Amino acid sequence: MGYTLTMLGCGVMGQAILSAIYNAPKSENASLYPSKIIACNGDAPAANQVTDLIKGYGESPNGIVVESTFGDNIAAVKQSDVIILGTKPYLVELVMNELTHVVKGKLIISIAAGWTISQLQGYSNVVSRVMTNTPAKYGYGCAVIAHSSEVNTEQKQLVSELISNVGVCVELPEKNMDAATSLVGSGPAYVLLMIESMMESGIKMGIPLAESLKCTLQVLEGTVKMVEKSGTHPSVLKHQVCTPGGTTIAGLCKMEEYGVKNGIIKGVEEGAIVAAKLGKK
Ligand SMILES: NC(=O)c1ccc[n+]([C@@H]2O[C@H](COP(=O)([O-])OP(=O)(O)OC[C@H]3O[C@@H](n4cnc5c(N)ncnc54)[C@H](OP(=O)(O)O)[C@@H]3O)[C@@H](O)[C@H]2O)c1
Fold first, then answer.
1. pTM (2 d.p.)
2. Rounded to the nearest whole angstrom, what is the distance from the C-alpha of residue 64 to the centroid of ligand 1?
3. pLDDT of 137 over the 90 cut
């Protein structure tokens, strides 16, 4: 008989993580998986959405049963050993203040942007802070994890096993979390801007929308695979494509004239600055 896990807040991100854990292939580390997940939301429509989501899947390969509720966080947390905190950051205080007497000593895995480990330790000392992103819904997410010193080796293993199902999992010190919030959490929006821009450049020059999008996606995916498989630094690969006096270097120089690289770096930094302010009262 495994443990019970409560998800406090199971919206966009919570459902992505729930789906990834529920549908995880049968694991050799079955004991690291919960036998039951209680998904808690604020109202009936959100709870029904989770029920419908799970109905759309087959049985969980690791035998996980999901119960979807609303308005009864205390009862759910009382039954649970592990909590995933997935409400919007501004609701964390409200939601957690009501749970102080039942949550102490339990492992809190928080995905709330801006909430630091030390702030969350006001509720329980055992905290893992995770920043992930929406591609998690399709198994292509990225998650950055930082643990409080009270999280033991077995609990770290549990967090990695569960969260790695979103895609790729990286452990970093907490000081990197604001940067990760922007780079990883907001990252898909930045890449979507790139996709949109490339797609529209094709349309502007006469390539129909569908074909322009198809080509853009393949260029992005192909380039990612090339970087991964070659193990070569991106700058080296970039210069390999630049024929002297050719089209690529001309395009790159024009982009630099418009400050594309600096704009991206400054934009990601700005996201991190806002992330750092989120948890502060
Ligand atoms: N979305 C992203 O791309 C992304 C990326 C990285 C990190 N995050 C982090 O993920 C967290 C959740 O974001 P989200 O986009 O998933 O938000 P969301 O879709 O609004 O989900 C939050 C959920 O919390 C529920 N909730 C509200 N009040 C509650 C209460 N008192 N008790 C229990 N549940 C309650 C809401 O249910 P009701 O609708 O019933 O109120 C909702 O389903 C945030 O802290 C955010 O920083 C999000």
1. 0.91
2. 22
3. no
